[in-house]
Amino acid sequence: MTTRRIVVGAHYGLRDWLAQRITAVVLLAYTLLLAGAMLFTPELTYGTWSGLFATAWMKVATLMAVIALIWHAWVGVRDIYMDYVQSTGLRLTLQVATVLALVGYALWAVIILWRV
Amino acid sequence: MADLAAQKARPQYRNIHVTQLLGYRLPPAGIVSILHRISGALLFLAGIPFGLYLLSTSISSEISFQTYRAVVTSVPGKLLLLVLAWAFLHHAIAGVRYLLLDRHVGIQKEASRTSAVAVLALTAVLTLLVALKLFGAF
Predict the structure, then answer these.
(1) A75 to chain B, minimum CA–CA distance in Å?
(2) Model ipTM value
(3) C-alpha–C-alpha distance, residues A99 and A65, integer Å
(4) Which DSSP string corresponds to A44-111?
(5) Looking at beta carbons, which residues of chain B come within 8 Å of A55?
(6) DSSP 3-state assignment of A5?
(7) In B, which residues are within 8 Å of A80 by CB distance?
(8) What is the pLDDT of residues A48-61, one digit of tens each?
(9) CB neighbours of B24 closer than 8 A, spacing ≥ 6?
């Protein structure tokens, strides 16, 4: 007796589903952290605001949030393309452009945080 | 037969065409869902680049901080901030609802309907507060 299994898909479904949720929680945590930090800053001036991002823990937290953000955005935007863009060529083009934009944003964030 | 033909045909939706979208009555959960997607697209297209631009100008130097102040106090800047604030609030609050649904919290028909309405109401109230703050009511 033989068992015939029909294997479909690239098996990134569960991984991406889980990644979208984990990154969402990271982003919620960062939002609360930033809101809390702003609440405890007496007056929002250039000095207090840039001082907040000058600390190592805030830099690390912000970069973690940026990584979570581009990962989260990638899964979501790719889902939108998969639903609405039926031409494989156009979808691939959009996906490549999206990846380039997201990686660019992440690098930009590193440069911004590097300056303070 | 004539009576039957005269009867107003009930709309049928099998594959929804773009032109039928506005006539399609979505339940609250459906509205939350499509707005979650639209707000996500907005946050990707405008939210990330504008957010990074604001972060860059606000923390780089005293001079760039003045640019940041000028941008966020201009009317186009405030309108963009308001749209993005709505997108962020809706996306985040609806996102919490989805995380709870994933944990099987409130998956019953009535509970999920109530939570969908709650997401829309809470987002509306918070967006209104942001609007009042942006345009100087307090």
Answers:
(1) 11
(2) 0.89
(3) 17
(4) --HHHHHHHHHSHHHHHHHHHHHHHHHHHHHHHHHHHHHHH---HHHHHHHHHHHHHHHHHHHHHHHH
(5) none
(6) coil
(7) 37, 40-41
(8) 999 999 999 999 99
(9) B13, B16
- pTM, to two decimals: 0.88
Rounded percentage of chain A residues whose pLDDT exceeds 70 = 93
Asked if the C-beta of B102 comes within 8 angstroms of chain A's C-beta atoms, the answer is yes
DSSP chain B: -HHHHHSPPPP--SS--GGGGGG----HHHHHHHHHHHHHHHIIIIIHHHHHHHHHHHHH-HHHHHHHHHHHHSHHHHHHHHHHHHHHHHHHHHHHHHHHHHTTSS-SHHHHHHHHHHHHHHHHHHHHHHHHHHTT--
Please list every residue in chain B whose beta carbon sits closer than 8 Å to the beta carbon of residue A81. Answer: none
